[in-house]
């Protein structure tokens, strides 16, 4: 019979089956964050294209920023399906997307 005091783990020890479950949850959360960040970046790119189209004196910097946001959104959307195969790259993508979202919109 297992000691109930040790059932949740002690001093950071987690049973192997719990580790796999936590990795699966973390992977699903990572995919959701990639897709959400991708959607935000696509929306930002669309907004910058609209601003560029209606601006009286558009600059090339506005077009470049919109294009860069679009490319980043595409790369995150394409990374989402294979995030479980490349967890390190997915973590980096999520970190970059969250930082950029925080920089552009002031919130995570």
TrEMBL record:
Keyword terms: Membrane, Transmembrane, Transmembrane helix
Transmembrane domains' residue ranges: 34-55, 61-81
Protein name, as recorded: Uncharacterized protein
């Amino acid at each position: 019979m297992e000691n109930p005091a040790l059932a949740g783990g002690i001093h950071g020890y987690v049973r192997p089956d719990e580790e796999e479950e936590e990795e699966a949850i973390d992977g699903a959360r990572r995919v959701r964050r990639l897709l959400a960040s991708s959607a935000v970046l696509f929306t930002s790119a669309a907004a910058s294209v609209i601003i560029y189209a209606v601006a009286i004196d558009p600059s090339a910097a506005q077009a470049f920023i919109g294009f860069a946001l679009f490319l980043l959104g595409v790369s995150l959307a394409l990374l989402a399906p294979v995030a479980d195969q490349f967890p390190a790259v997915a973590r980096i993508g999520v970190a970059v997307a969250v930082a950029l979202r925080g920089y552009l919109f002031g919130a995570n």
